[in-house]
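user: Kindly work through both lines:
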Amino acid sequence: MIRGEELTRLARDYIKYLFGAKESLRLKRAMYNWHKFWENITRKEVLREGWLERAIVKTPTWWHKPKQLARFVESLYRDYMRQQEREQERAQES
């Protein structure tokens, strides 16, 4: 927020600028901030129709690589079996 004396200085800088003087740093900063504010309130987001369908189609799934799926499932099964064997060994030791 601009208040009091700062607003007076900015108004004076703006009037000088209107009559041909060079922009002051304070005026440049204020004009830049107003420009950014204007862009933010007037910006329209572009939403492409079908964006979700394109994203789904482009996302690879396990079905695209059945050999990789088979290896993954096999490794899960092996890990599960190892864990079961360890638990059985621990149970027998106790």
Notes: Helices lie at 4-18, 25-42, 51-58, 66-93. Residues 4-42 form one domain. The chain has a mean pLDDT of 87. The first helix runs from residue 4 to 18.
